[in-house]
Design a protein that fits this description.
Helices cover 49% and strands 21% of the residues. With 808 residues, it is α+β, with helices and mostly antiparallel strands. The longest helix is centred in the N-terminal third of the chain and has 66 residues. The radius of gyration is 54 Å and the shape is elongated. The relative contact order is 0.05.
């Protein structure tokens, strides 16, 4: 049931008072009850201490009297004579004199029940004593004996004449002589209980008839030790109870002290009733006042609620009026002003929901709605969608500021809209993505329009005194050739724009079935950071050998990835994905860390090898890379000259000035720089002469043909000669046979790398390979006129790396 404001206000008024009052009452009552109970428990503890002291005093006094009696010369003489009648008469006289209920004597040479005992009780006492003595024990000074429902405390004393002739024992019946003094001193109920094999016997009790059945203490509960206070049900009522043993040496007889729990709480219960009556009266008064106040506040609010319901229905013409000059009147005035503002802002909100706030163009949501409407229209037979992705906006923002980035984005939107003209729908679907929807336009026309747009964007944009050129990549998708869904049409055009960037094209068209490849690409991009974090990527090492000496020169670090779902991924797949998704920084640093750590391990094993790591074009733009590399080298205590950074021609030429600056920084620190895959790009040695390089690697596609194509050998020899002229060390990769190796040595190539030596190996396998490796001499074994014959097709290097034997 929905509560009205009147009821809520009443609850708000009454509840705090009710909670405060109830809390105060409960606190007072609980505290009072706890204090009363604590007082009762303390009284029991004090009573227990008093009872214990009283019993100890009585025991000490009686025990002293018995020992004095045992030392009496006359009594010793009578007992020593061992005349039964004389002994009995003497014992009875002395027992009567000190108030004992029984007296007996046990000779230490008695073998059984003594014939001097005159009663069953005495015989019982004598049997107990003889049992203890037969077991080579010592009689306690005090012990308890139970006969029927009677409990006796027996006091013993050793009698010597001059050697020990036996023990004098006097017994006192336990009853009111103990219970009444304790009751008088403590004002507590007292009971003395005997717990035996036959059950529980009450020796004496000061409880009234209604509470005559006193339960024994819980002897099995170790937490209820003697003098502990705990609750017990005695008859129909609950008591606070404590207990202590009558005799310390015998815990079969207990003194139980009890105080009825309800008795000290009588005054508390009366006070409780008074407090409750006061609380109820106060609550009634508060409820009455709260109801009056709530009714006065809710009346104008009901009028205001009625007016706002009209506003919620869109009836903005109805004026809100409340005849009140207090805060509620001010609230009504505020609602009236809101009513006027809502009408004007509603159209603005609708516009902002469907448009990009920076460019004012329709956003992705609006674009999907337009595409769905056009696809569903009978008048539209085909729709082409162009997506243009702008590159390097983030770098522009970090260099010139966010304001410049915003202005550049707006200017780009104006350029696209100007080239597209009024006949096309232009939208901004992302921070750096624009879309152009072409209805009833074939794919070829859309492709031509996309080229016109990218051509215009390539001319650059004037931003103040600076002209900025942003790279753009366009993708085109078509309905119904590629899809019949508006969302898929946008997604496919975006995939095509990403493919255009990856292929280094300005324009690409969606290829049917490309979505599966793109999904795979996204999976790789998504999983790569996690794979690096959990070290799922493995770094392999392929050895490099000095051709002149046959000694190990170093190794190239090559990363491998066995994906849990996609299986083995070729390096080109995930490295290119890393470059396109800006994860290359993470991947490169991972490989550098592993490679330098491996170099340190080799050094510890006694191998001073260089390790080479590949850098991408993005790495050359990373201004923090140098600091990271030097930090890792210092961390592992590896000299900078042991590290080689391999770059490709294309990566250097992409941002030549910045790449040269980065490479100069590395070379100044002693780190070597190598140009990788030379011969596969569009540059020449002349173009590379100004680069800060130490090493040149000839691509394996030339080396693998050296045995069959003299043109390739001529190209290799010329390249080696020119590289030496520039002061560069030459590395040949892809060597798979001994003939190629000998020809390279003939042309004075310094370093060799390839399957002839070893395939790339995991670090542990590579260390074992190093330990087993033995250098070999690959000098040409025939004259220049009769060179070493190239291998015939049947003699070619085997498919499985590592099978060909090296000449020792």
């Amino acid at each position: 049931m929905r509560l009205k404001f009147l009821h809520k206000l009443l609850i708000l008024t009454v509840t705090p008072v009710l909670i405060a009052q109830a809390g105060t009452m409960l606190a007072v009552l609980q505290t009072s009850k706890q204090e009363i109970e604590a007082g009762a428990k303390q009284a029991l503890r004090v009573g227990s201490a008093v009872a214990e002291q009283l019993v100890q005093t009585r025991n000490q006094q009686i025990s002293r009297n018995v020992k004095l009696l045992a030392s009496d010369f006359a009594l010793k003489e009578v007992i020593a004579i061992s005349d039964p009648e004389s002994t009995r008469s003497a014992l009875d006289n002395h027992a009567n004199r000190i108030g004992a209920d029984l007296s007996t004597f046990v000779y230490i040479d008695d073998d059984g029940e003594s014939d001097r005992a005159t009663s069953a009780l005495e015989r019982h006492v004598q049997r107990y004593a003889l049992t203890v003595l037969d077991n080579d024990g010592a009689l306690p000074d005090i012990f308890s004996i139970v006969l029927g429902k009677s409990v006796y405390q027996v006091y013993t004393a050793e009698m010597r004449a001059p050697t020990t002739i036996g023990y004098l024992m006097l017994g006192f019946r336990v009853g009111d002589n103990i219970a009444k003094p304790i009751r008088k001193l403590t004002d507590l109920n007292v009971a003395i209980l005997q717990i035996g094999a036959t059950g529980i016997n009450t020796a004496v009790s000061t409880f009234d008839a209604a509470h005559s059945h006193v339960p024994p203490p819980d002897l099995l509960n170790k937490q209820l030790a003697a003098n502990s206070v705990y609750p017990k049900l005695v008859g129909p009522d609950e008591f606070w109870v404590t207990h202590l043993p009558l005799t310390r040496a015998d815990e079969r007889v207990f003194i139980v002290l009890a105080s009825q729990k309800l008795k000290p709480l009588q005054h508390f219960l009366k006070a409780k009733d008074n407090v409750l009556a006061f609380g109820v009266g106060l609550l009634v008064l508060v409820v009455a006042l709260g109801a009056w106040l709530s009714a006065g506040v809710s009346r104008p609010l009901r009028s205001l609620a009625s007016a706002t319901r009209s506003l919620a229905k869109g009836e903005y013409e109805t004026e809100i009026r409340v005849a009140s000059r207090d805060e509620i009147g001010e609230l009504a005035q505020g609602f009236e002003e809101m009513r006027k503002a809502v009408a004007s802002r509603e159209s603005q909100i609708s516009h902002q929901l469907l448009h990009d706030p920076l460019t004012g163009l329709p956003n992705q949501k609006h674009t999907i709605a337009v595409l769905e409407r056009e696809i569903d229209s009978q008048a539209v037979t085909e729709v082409s969608l162009i997506v243009i992705k702008m590159q390097s906006l983030d770098r522009i923002g970090s260099s010139l500021g966010l304001h410049s980035t915003d202005e550049l984005t707006r200017e780009t939107a104006r350029t696209i809209a100007s080239v597209a003209g009024d006949g096309y729908f232009v939208a901004c679907i992302d921070t750096n993505r624009f879309a152009v929807a072409c209805c009833n336009t074939d794919l070829a026309t859309a492709q031509a329009l996309a080229r016109d747009i990218t051509d215009q964007l390539d001319l650059g944009t004037q931003l103040g005194s600076t002209r900025i050129t942003l790279k753009s990549h366009a993708g085109v998708a078509h309905y119904p050739s590629h899809t019949t869904s508006a969302e898929d049409l946008i997604r496919y055009a975006m995939i095509a724009s990403v493919d255009a960037k990856g292929k280094k094209l300005r324009l690409d068209t969606y290829d049917t079935g490309r979505e599966a490849d793109f999904t795979r690409y996204l999976k790789i991009v998504q999983d790569l950071p996690t794979a690096v974090e959990h070290e799922e990527l493995k770094v392999f090492f392929q050895p490099k050998v000095s051709i002149a000496s046959g000694e190990l020169y170093g190794a190239e670090a090559l990363v491998r990835w066995q994906h849990a779902e996609l299986g083995f991924l070729p390096p080109d797949d995930f490295i290119s994905a890393a470059e396109r998704s800006d994860n290359i920084k993470l991947l490169t640093r991972y490989v550098i860390q592993k490679a330098i750590a491996a170099a340190r391990q080799w050094q510890d094993d006694g191998f001073t090898l260089k390790v080479a790591v590949n850098l991408s074009a993005r790495d050359l733009l990373d201004r923090d890379l140098f600091g990271y590399v030097t930090e890792v080298l210092e961390q592992h205590d590896v000299p900078t000259t042991r590290l080689i950074l391999e770059i490709t021609e294309s990566s250097v030429m992409e941002e030549l000035d910045l790449a040269v600056e980065t490479l100069n920084t590395f070379r100044a620190a002693g780190i070597l720089v190598s140009i990788d895959d030379f011969g596969t790009g569009h540059s020449s040695l002349a173009q590379l002469r100004d680069l800060p390089l130490d090493e040149l690697k000839i691509d394996k596609s030339f080396v693998s043909q050296i045995s069959a194509d003299s043109d390739d050998e001529l190209l290799i020899s010329t390249t080696i000669e020119l590289a030496h002229g520039m002061g560069l060390t030459v590395v040949a990769e892809g060597i798979e046979d001994e003939y190629s190796l000998r020809r390279l040595k003939h042309h004075k190539c310094e370093i060799a790398q390839g399957y002839f030596f070893s395939k790339p190996l995991p670090e542990d396998d590579f260390r074992r390979w190093m330990a087993d490796y033995r250098p070999a001499d690959y000098t040409e074994r025939r004259s220049e006129t009769r060179p070493f014959s190239p291998p015939q097709p049947s003699q070619a290097a085997p498919d499985t790396p590592g099978q060909m034997k090296k000449r020792p």
